[in-house]
Amino acid sequence: MKRTGVVLTLLLACAPALARTWNLDAAHSNLAFTNSYQGVEYTGQFRRFNAVIDYDPNDLAHAKLDVTIDITSLDTQKSERDHTALGADFFDTARFPKAHFVTTAFHKAADGKIIADGVLTLRGVSKPVALTVLFKPDGDAATLDVTVQVKRLDFGIGAGQWADPSMIGDGVAVHGHLQLRARK
After folding, report:
1. Is residue 49 within 8 Å of 72, Cβ to Cβ?
2. Contact 103, 129 (CB under 8 A)
3. How does pLDDT run along the chain (184 residues), one tens digit per residue?
4. Quick one: CA torsion of 44, 168, 175, 116, rounded to 10 degrees?
């Protein structure tokens, strides 16, 4: 009996730690972006998105970030621009209403920043992207800030005359500020 207890204790001690699971507080989180149109910068956001987050900064090997974005919730505070962006030349939300990002690995960069490597699927195109991650725990709450630069043309966003990056910038800066609560 003692031997079984010792073996069980050793197995549990050697088992990998699992990253903590966090629930998204969507009402207090945002997913925003910045781009330019004819040299003038504008911002927007996606009002609806969901995230599954398993994260512990001390256990990056088991961390996971899985985000689904409702592209139809795009809001740039300019209805004409939003209508055009949701159409066939840009996001084509009739065919591709959602975007999806899922991590493949986390690692610490040489400068100490945490990087989340993953795959972004947008407008039916999947490409690798790397997010910079800043995680701030506070007991059973936390914030998770992510930033990434996405090349819109890599995903076929902006066809025809809109493919000219001097008209609409190719590099879109995306920033997510997520308020989290520990799953009980």
Report:
1. no
2. no
3. 555 444 444 444 444 445 799 999 999 999 999 999 999 999 999 999 999 999 999 999 999 999 999 999 999 999 999 999 999 999 999 999 999 999 999 999 999 999 999 999 999 999 999 999 999 999 999 999 999 999 999 999 998 889 999 999 999 999 999 999 999 8
4. 150
Encoded tokens for 48 = 């609806």
8 A C-beta contact, residue 32 and residue 179 = no
Place of tokens 């007991």: 139
Contact 33, 44 (CB under 8 A): yes
Q: How far apart are CA 41 and CA 80, in angstroms?
A: 16
> What tokens were used for 182?
């520990």
Rounded Cα distance between 161 and 159, Å, is 6
Phi first, then psi: give them for residue 155, nearest 5 degrees.
-105, 10
Residue whose token pair is 């207890």: 5
